[in-house]
Amino acid sequence: MMRRTTRSLCVSTTIVFPISAFVAAGFEHCVANMYFIPLGILLSAGAPGSPSWGGLAANLVPVTLGNIAGGSLMVAAVYYLIYNRALKGAS
Q1: CA angle 15-21-23, nearest 5°?
Q2: How many CA atoms lie within 13 A of 69 on its CB side?
Q3: 3-state secondary structure of 80
Q4: Does the pLDDT value for residue 2 go beyond 60?
């Protein structure tokens, strides 16, 4: 989508809406957090109770580990179930 335009407003909205939909759906993903937490830090400009760079690091470590473990286990389990059944049915 982004390769078809060079206007910065179009590029920005192309980036924001899919990430916003992902987060609005309730998922927590390290890539989405790398966008939204710094955005909150920059927009809050040091207001009391606002997110911090330390909070970003404290959030990204467990979320990234969870994404790696959950993604690898879930993808491996799905492939195992699909191809294990296919192999049993072929023999």
Answers
A1: 100
A2: 6
A3: helix
A4: no
Which residues are CB-neighbours of 37 under 8 A, at least 6 positions away? 51, 55, 56, 59
Distance CA 9, CA 51 (A): 26
**Residue 90: band (very low, low, confident or very high) from pLDDT cuts 50, 70, 90:** low
Question: What is the C-alpha radius of gyration for the chain, rounded to an integer number of angstroms?
Answer: 19
41's tokens: 């830090």
46-70 pLDDT, tens digit per residue, is 778 888 888 889 989 998 998 888 8
CB 33 within 8 A of CB 60: yes
30 and 64 in contact (C-beta within 8 Å)?
yes
